[in-house]
Amino acid sequence: MINYKKFNLLFAFLLFLSEIIIAQEKKNPHYTQNIPGVNVKFDMKAIPGGEFKMGSPGIEPGHKPDEEPARLVKISPFWMSSNEITWDIYELFVYQDYDQTKSLGVDAITRPSKPYLDMTFGMGKEGHPAVGMTQFNALQFCKWLYTRTGVFYRLPTEAEWEYACRAGSQTAFSFGSDTALLSDYAWSRSNSMEKTHPVGGKKPNQWGLYDMHGNVAEWTLDQYIPNYYSLNPGKASDPLAKAENLYPHSVRGGSFEDDATALRSAARRGSDPNWKRIDPQIPKSNWWFPEAPFVGIRLVRPFITPSKEQIDAFYNQKPIADY
Prior knowledge:
By secondary structure, this protein is of the alpha+beta class. It contains seven helices and eleven strands. It has a four-stranded antiparallel beta sheet, with no helix packed on it. The longest helix is centred in the N-terminal third of the chain and has 24 residues, at 4-27.
């Protein structure tokens, strides 16, 4: 028998909680993050919490088995960088000489080994997305950024990434399913001339995020597990396939090298040790993928900031040696 009193109390509590979240989101609009001591900044867009169907139906052109079964996912609110992180920002982390604010005490942060080749691959630097870093490298960049700004940044989860990419849509792309429109929103194999392009040059999605389709693919936090959706078919809240192995990690969005099917909102890809095939070092570098000029970074800031202990534990995970 239904206890209507308890049901009404629970409903009232949930309604109260939703009102609090909505009020908090209104107090936390889009913002620009400045990096102290240098004339460099980036924009963050407020992404509202909500529910969406993650994955794709079998009838979607380009659908793959790792995108099924589509499942309902609930996402907490967060901020996401409106653009992929560019070399203008990333080089401050990579090259200590570029960082002119050693008085802030950040020069002790572990930085990447100097790449032994041009990691722009001759595609361009100013305004172009930074590419070729490992997921560990990307996470250490987030740690450096936290030390510089005091704000906790990380990579998006797969679920956060797809939710933000879709921006309320359930079609193959955020703008619909007509691939004839793709060139208005994305740099792909058909129009990129086989290189990256300055971020923000195409139309954004409905939530003001640029290059979610194409230009460069983007790291997520998740371990790439092909059948992950079928292992967890029910409704999920902020799911994360915790990474415990060096390979593969999930990469999203497709790149300038890919055709339209790889740029779909639901398309998934795992990192590959072949991306280090020409690395002459033993063990291989923890920092760079010399054959992955198509992978970059987009940042997320969770609405609820983790504790100092949680932040330290997150940033100080040891890399796994790659032989």
